[in-house]
Amino acid sequence: QLQASGGGLVQAGDSLRLSCAGSGITFSGYSMGWFRQAPGKEREFVAQINWASGNRYYADSAKGRFTISRDIVKNSVYLQIASLKPEDTAVYYCGVRTGTVYTYWGQGTLVTVSS
């Protein structure tokens, strides 16, 4: 089970850190990722981190302001977002990539950025 948290109502220019904790599942051998879905739009990839190596991958739109990280001891993955913009408003989901696709998903956490 994945539990995402950290969302909320913030002002443009603020920073936010989203968390995703895993319970009953080990991420070893997998990759973890963050996706987001804005109102009226499809879910889009934001960032991914390989659990073992720590290698990170970002969508082009996420490079520069988004940072994905993980804590192996806490079995958690994080997404730090800097200089938030109204267009970052979305439900953010964490997921586990077990092969070539994401298999497990958290329930999502809503981020609302006001101008």
Can you characterise this structure?
The structure is a single chain. The protein is mainly beta and 115 residues long. It has no helices and eleven strands. The chain has strands at residues 2-5, 8-11, 16-22, 31-37, 44-50, 56-58, 66-71, 76-81, 90-97, 102-105, 109-114. The strands form two sheets. Strands 2, 4, 5, 6, 9, 10 and 11 form a seven-stranded mixed β-sheet that branches. The chain is globular and about 40 Å long.
Q: What would you call the structural class?
A: mainly beta
Terminal CA distance reads: 34 Å
In angstroms, what is the radius of gyration? 13 Å
Biggest β-sheet strands, sense, barrel: 7 strands, mixed
Shape: globular
What is the total tally of β strands? Answer: 11
Proportion of residues in helical segments: under 10%
Number of helices: 0
Layout: helices, strands, pairs:
Layout: E1 2-5, E2 8-11, E3 16-22, E4 31-37, E5 44-50, E6 56-58, E7 66-71, E8 76-81, E9 90-97, E10 102-105, E11 109-114
Parallel strand pairs: 2-11
Antiparallel strand pairs: 1-3, 3-8, 4-5, 4-9, 5-6, 7-8, 9-10, 9-11
Features:
11 strands; mainly beta; seven-stranded mixed β-sheet; 0% helix; four-stranded antiparallel β-sheet; 115 residues
Write a concise synopsis of the structure shown.
The protein has 115 residues and is an all-beta fold.
